[in-house]
Amino acid sequence: MVEHYFTAEPASADERGTLTVELAGREVTVHTAPGVFSAGRLDLGTRVLLRSVPTPPATGDLLDLGCGWGPIALTLALESPAATVWAVDVNRRALDLLRRTAADLGLTNLRVVEPDEVPDDVTFAAIWSNPPIRVGKDALHAMLTRWLGRLEPDGQAWLVVQRTLGSDSLADWLRGQGLATTKAASAKGFRVLRVGPHD
Ligand SMILES: C[S@@+](CC[C@H](N)C(=O)[O-])C[C@H]1O[C@@H](n2cnc3c(N)ncnc32)[C@H](O)[C@@H]1O
Q1: Is the CB of 190 under 6 A from ligand 1?
Q2: Ligand 1 centre and the CA of 5: distance in Å?
Q3: Dihedral over alpha carbons 141, 147, 152, 158 (to 10 degrees)
Q4: Cα distances (angstroms) measured from residue 157 to each of 16, 35, 182
Q5: Roughly what angle, to the nearest 10 degrees, separates helices 44-52 and 71-79?
Q6: Residue 46 CA from chain centroid, whole number
Q7: CA-CA distance, 119 to 117, in Å (whole number)?
Q8: pTM for the complete prediction?
C-alpha cells in the first residue's frame, strides 16, 4: 500500500533524523522522519512561498495550514515572536517532530496541534500554506473553506500550488467562493496565490 504523507499515524519506520535549513534568515536544525512531507529537504514549493510572502503581522494569531515538519510555522514564529502561531496538521508524527524542534529552539509562541484543537474563537491575521493538493479536490476545498473563513477582515492568506497540480483552477474556485484571489508570484512551476476575505 502506498503511504501518503497525510496519514494520521504513518506506518513507515519512525527513523528520526535532523536537517539543517535556512529559515527566517538563520540556520536552524529541525527534526524530520519518513512518512512526513518532504522529510529530506525544504520543499521547492515551500521555498518559493517563503521567498514571496511579505513580513508577517507582528501580533495576533497566524496559521500554517498543513505544517508538516514545520518550515512555514517556524518561519512565522521566528519572524513574529509576539504573535501566536498555530501549526496544524493531521499527521501526528509531523506534529511530534515540530514540537521537538520548537522546544529545541525555545519557541514558546508556537501551538502545534491537530485541526480540531484550535479553539473556535481564534481568527487569523494571516494564513500561510503549502496545502495538501493530493488529498483530492473535495477534501482540499472543504479544508480551505473551513480555515479561510476564519481570516480577519484585513487578513491575507498566501498559498503555494504547483501549476501542473491545478493552481489556476484553484484560483478560479477561490474567486467563485467570493474570495479576492490574485497570483502574487510565479516561479519554478509554482504559483503563489494571495487570498483576501473579500472580493
Ligand atoms: C504539501 S504538505 C506541506 C508541509 C509543510 N508545510 C511544508 O511546507 O513542508 C501539506 C500538509 O498538509 C497536511 N494535511 C493534509 N490534510 C490536512 C487537513 N485536513 N488539515 C490539516 N493538514 C492537513 C499533510 O499531512 C501535509 O503535512
Answers
A1: no
A2: 8
A3: -70
A4: 31, 27, 11
A5: 20
A6: 8
A7: 6
A8: 0.95
Return the pLDDT at 3.
64
Contact 71, 128 (CB under 8 A): no
Q: Is the CB of 21 under 6 A from ligand 1?
A: no
Residue stretches of the chain with pLDDT short of 70: 1-3, 11, 198-199
HSE at residue 110, side-chain half, CA atoms within 13 A, is 29
What is the number of domains present in the chain?
1
Residue-level pLDDT at 2: 52
Kindly report, residue by residue over 13-31, the tens digit of the pLDDT.
778 899 999 999 999 999 9
**Cβ 38 under 6 angstroms from ligand 1:** yes
Q: What is the residue type of 66?
A: G
Other C-beta atoms lying within 10 Å of the C-beta of residue 133: 16
CATH number at residue 109: 3.40.50.150
Amino acid at 167: S
Contact (Cβ atoms closer than 8 angstroms) between residue 192 and residue 184: yes
The secondary structure element, H or E, covering residue 26 is: strand 26-32
Angle (nearest 5°) at CA 95 between 13 and 20: 75
In a domain, 163, yes or no: yes
- Within a domain: residue 102? yes
